[in-house]
Write a structure and sequence with these properties.
The chain is an alpha/beta fold. The protein is about 50% helix and about 10% strand. The protein binds nicotinamide-adenine-dinucleotide (NAD). The site of nicotinamide-adenine-dinucleotide has 22 residues, from helix 1 and helix 5.
Length: about 400
């Protein structure tokens, strides 16, 4: 593990819990020891709660090596970097991993927003390099996005997928693309409600309540942005705007960050500390439905783009959004249930109502409509549906 910060520590803990030896390296000489102490404290808590016996906990902690020496690195099967999210910091770290690890080892990045292909460019052995995007908090999040760049060898992908499964996680394979699956689709949907809130002036907590109450997501987008840090969300938004366009732009994030309102860590973002549980002004039922529909339609349009670009399959996009963003239903599955004709009609209406260029029926959706694939109703849509509507046993 290169980088023993927030993510490096959590990934190392996961490995040790699964009985895998892990070595920690960091530019800060104290960081690996701190990480080991954190892992030790977590294991201690398991023992106190009777979930692990003390000897087992000791054995797991003994798997975490903080001072391996370079010779030991030649035996490593997989190196993961979790150093700061800057290409100029990651590049030399990856080059060192490529040089120090044995020829059979896989080299992976835990980047959440940089291009895996660009990071591969400087490596002597790009064929053994891929993205392994673990989510925070690692122990609770089942999803790992497994990102292939053009030159990743198929055998390396298979080995990485096996490892992710062995760790008890859900590997979702995708082609390198800005924001991968979860951040891209989630940010498209979030940007839609950020703009909606800015345009209408509705209380953010009311938007959250509409989406949570409607069973769309377990945490509303404004509460989620506060928890992640508005500076972090703004950074992702800016990257996606630069890479993919203005459909990701808008909302009050930039102004709030400039005013120092960074979310939970500063006690004030869209919510004020201590006021999270306060009842929100309820939206009229039609408005609550409108918010939920715009959130989901924006997610659908972005998910369709992923299919058109060949980034991932419909099944994997939906699985990633459920496991990585807590969507109750994958957006493509939701579209199939609504009826693709109805989805297309609503998109056109929003476009006519002045929603801008983002509300256009994408070519793939037009093609499905032309083929009579309207979703659950016709048995075919983005997914194949094996059973009659209403039985709840559709495939995909
Ligand atoms: N924190 C999250 O929620 C999250 C979620 C998914 C992915 N990620 C990604 O994981 C990566 C790490 O994020 P983090 O939150 O753990 O960061 P962090 O700041 O907590 O940890 C980074 C660690 O890297 C070390 N470091 C800096 N330069 C180094 C170098 N040249 N060589 C070795 N170590 C070096 C630092 O000392 C620090 O301990 C980033 O790419 C981030 O985008 C973060």
């Amino acid at each position: 593990m290169w980088g023993a910060g927030t993510m490096g520590t959590q990934i190392a803990e996961l490995m040790a819990l699964e009985g895998i030896r892990v070595v920690l390296r960091d530019a800060d000489a104290q960081a690996p020891e701190r990480a080991r102490a954190t892992i030790g404290a977590h294991l201690g808590r398991r023992v106190e709660r009777g979930r692990m016996d003390a000897r087992d906990a000791q054995a797991r902690l003994a798997l975490v090596d903080v001072d391996p020496g370079e010779a030991a690195l030649a035996e490593v099967d997989l190196g993961i970097e979790a150093v700061p999210e800057l290409i100029e910091v990651k590049r030399p770290v990856l080059a060192a991993m490529d040089r120090l690890l044995g020829p059979g080892a896989i080299v992976a990045t835990n980047t959440s927003s940089l291009s895996v292909g660009e990071l591969a460019a400087g490596l002597v052995h790009p064929e053994r390099f891929l993205g392994l995007h673990f989510f925070h908090p690692v122990a609770a999040m089942r999803l790992v996005e497994v990102i292939r760049h053009r030159g990743t060898a198929p055998a390396v992908m298979s080995a990485a997928i096996r490892l992710v499964r062995d760790l008890g996680k859900l590997p979702i394979v995708l082609q390198d693309s800005p924001g991968f699956i979860v951040n891209r689709v989630l940010m498209a949907a979030m940007a839609e409600v950020l703009r909606y809130q800015e345009e209408t002036g509705i209380d953010p907590s009311s938007v959250d309540a509409a989406l949570v109450g409607g069973g769309v997501v377990p945490v509303g987008p404004f509460a989620l942005a506060d928890a992640l840090g508005l500076d972090v969300v703004l950074h992702v938004q800016e990257r996606l705007v630069a890479a993919l366009g203005s459909r990701f732009a808008g909302g009050r994030l930039a102004a709030m960050v400039a005013a120092g309102r960074l979310g939970a860590k500063r006690g004030e973002g869209f919510y004020r500390r201590g006021e999270e549980g306060k009842p929100s002004p309820p939206l009229a039922e039609r408005e609550a439905q409108r918010v939920a529909e715009r959130f989901l339609l924006a997610a659908v349009l972005e998910a369709v783009k992923l299919l058109e670009e060949g980034v991932a399959s419909a099944r994997d996009v939906d699985r990633a959004m459920r496991a990585g963003a807590g969507f109750a239903q994958g957006p493509l599955r939701w579209a199939d249930e609504q009826g693709l004709d109805r989805v297309a009609q609503r998109v056109e209406e929003l476009g006519r109502q002045g929603g801008g260029a983002r509300w256009q029926v994408p070519p793939l959706l037009r093609q499905l409509l032309a083929e009579g694939r309207l979703g659950v109703r016709t048995g075919q849509g983005f997914h194949a549906h094996r059973s009659a509507p209403g039985t709840g046993r559709a495939g995909g």
